[in-house]
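== Sequence entry ==
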Amino acid sequence: MASRARIAGALLFLAAAAVGPFAPDWIVSIATIAFANALVVLGLVVLWRVGLVSFGQALYYCLGAYAVALVARWTGVTDAFVLVTLGGAGAGVVAVLVGFLLARYREIFFAMLSLALSMILYGVLVKTESLGSSDGFTVLTPTFLGYAPHGKQLGLTLYWLTLAVDAVAAVLVGLYFHSIAGSLAAPIRDNEIRVEFLGVSVTTIIHIKVIIAGVLGGLGGALAAMCIGHVDPAMAYWTTSGGFVFVTVLAGSGHVAAAFIGSLVFEAVRSFAVDVMPQFWQMALGTVLLLTILFLPEGLGSLVSRLRRRGEAKP
């Protein structure tokens, strides 16, 4: 069944890539943002499986975005592949350092510490005039191995790049979930003392999860920055982190595909609600989350598990 799920996922990514040239520009733009943010949500899923909730993933999201903008501005390097790699790597380095602190805490302490670190970055950016202060600054138009598209072709190329990064991340995280360290998530969540008695360092495993979530957050921020074309301190603000947690609850943690499904649904509902009821769009999002909790308590990703169980029952 695992191989069948991978084939289904690959077909869905290929179908999404094939639909791009025929979709309106605004749909491609929304989908690109949704799939970029899905990487951050995927990192939260990695943490959620071990019972941890981070209210500070905007820290890595913002670092990835600012890394893209600053490297392009200071060095003139605009190649998207290089910038995305640097965005993920930069956020990963910070996650390594931050992880030494966060891996020692659990529950609300983990959540609040991650939030505090994100807000420290927000405060630094707001007070730094050379980084645009509260207004931020624009991101130079990216290139792709020497190819410099404009207009619709630029948006489409960024969309395909985002899908490619998502596909690689989905495969790697799926493999991690099936590894020994990934499989220990539930036992650690239930009783980490017993896991320690097995000779496994729970702190090390959680540190690794923090790094994975940080790298994914940086990649998402880098892709979002190139798509939006602008960065500002709001990317590190607590409401941004809260939005990612909202999508994680909406998506659930039962399957890798949940992050992408949840993020796409969230962006679609938010865009529709802002257009139809600009004064009450938060109410629409809250209603969707409430209905999901009531009727799909394990998130939208549980639909994938249900379809899988039905497929197993038919033979």
About this structure: The chain has a mean pLDDT of 89. The chain has one domain: 2-313. The CA atoms of residues 62 and 235 lie 5 Å apart.
